[in-house]
Design brief:
- The complex is a heterodimer of chains A (335) and B (172).
- Chain A is α+β, with helices and mostly antiparallel strands and 335 residues long.
- Chain A is 36% helix and 32% strand.
- Chain A has 9 helices and 18 strands.
- Chain A starts with a helix and ends in a 6-residue tail after the last strand.
- Chain B has 172 residues and is mostly helical.
- Chain B folds into 2 domains: 1-112, Orthogonal Bundle (Rna Polymerase Sigma Factor, Chain: A); 122-172, Arc Repressor Mutant, subunit A (Orthogonal Bundle), CATH 1.10.10.
- In chain B, 70% of the residues lie in helices and 0% in strands.
- Classes of the chains: A alpha+beta (335), B mainly alpha (172).
- The interface between A and B is large, with 48 and 44 residues.
Chain lengths: 335, 172
Amino acid sequence: MSEEKQHSDFNNLVTRHLSGELTPGEERRFQEMLQQDPKKQSRVDEYRKIWDSVGSAADRRSYDLDSEWDLMQKKLPGIETRSASSRSLLFYSYRIAAALVVGLLFAFAWIYATRLAGTEKVVAENEPVKVLLEDGTLVMLNRYSRIRYKKNFSESERNVYLAGEAWFDVSGDPSRPFKIDAGSAMVEVLGTSFNVNAYKENAAVEITVESGVVALTAKLDQQEQIVLRAGNSGTYNKNNNELKLIPSSNPNKISWKTRELYFDSSSLEEVTELVNRVYNTNLVIVNQELASCPITVTFRDQTLEAVLNVLELTLDLEITRSGDEIRLDGPGCED
Amino acid sequence: MTIEKRLDPDERMDKDSFEKLFREYFPPLISFARKILVDEDDAREVVQNVFVSLWEKRKEIDLSTSLKSYLFTSVHNRSLNVIRDRKKFSSEELPDKAGDWDVSAQIESMELEEKINGALQALPEKCRKIFELNRFDGLKYSEIAAQLKISIKTVENQMSKALKILREKLLN
């Protein structure tokens, strides 16, 4: 084999390796060859660096600089000609005229700019936030959660992106399915009310349906889907990609919204966990013997003080506050 | 494309030169911010704010330092601020990749990417087409072969030719 031929065969191999086109057997032989020849290894490293940089160069091409510049200008104070305050109608008619002159490309940039500008983002920090979407759908966003959506939904779909937890009352519109992108899972509905818990730190995305029908799909495998009806819960486990239907849902899943808490021989530990979630408090059990004490009680839209009073009397607790901590102490309970 | 861009201190930055700067630096800056923050909207906001402050300070900014490192450093610092603010009200609500972000390595990779873009334009048409279908559009060799009605062997050869030319161009 001529040296040149060898050389080009090697190049061919490296390129196929980088594109992931080698069969497992070829890949193994390729790695063995590199281990024996440091010179070849460094040649491969060189190629990989170029390969990777080309990838990030590709990533950048996707920005439409005309519309990015338009967005940018809106934020610049005191820019002449097209100032932020006087843009509105004049600005758009100017853009339309330009589009007519310059042609399709410009028209596309304009559509893109308006589309980008029409993205709404709502963030709930310390308190839940109520959001009314243009189609009449009501969203109750739980703490530390946010949604993003287009101000005007498209004619064929209503798409919302959710990080965290929210309760949805989707207005009925069979011709436009309502889709929620919850990170690893997709939720699709026609019109119904339900809760989506998709906090990143949870191992599973959890849906609780109050009325109507909801379809839950894993993003990794969109073939599989479970259909949830009123009263059902469904989970998508991010660790093992499992979709699971739970026939009867726990009403406490949406306590954060209803402010109704149901306890039936629940342990004080479960109670404090839920109270913390609903009231955004930091209840701490000091004496661990208390943790398993059972409680049966229902709270309907009670103040935190009222809840604490009931707990105090039921379990003979001593409640003290220090900073944002509410400390529950006491002798414990016989069981 | 010039790499070391300095603004002449005597020359007031006007809107046109500002726009030119924006168009040149926006893509590498937002991709840097995205590496740290993951979220695209947050990254866009950080980059826009850096440009707003550049615009506001256009008269007093110290232009003897390289503008490029000023921009990358600002994006870096502001991104870390965003992460700090996120943590104030939530531990893990949003993804981020806070860590050691080497600003100068970032500048270096931007410069390399600029060279690559130039080098790509220098590839023979067919060769570049095949390379871009694979690298940018993520098509497999067999898919490219089917789409362009050529053999897989040809795709292999053109891919390896492209990489070889890129390497030659970039090492000089």
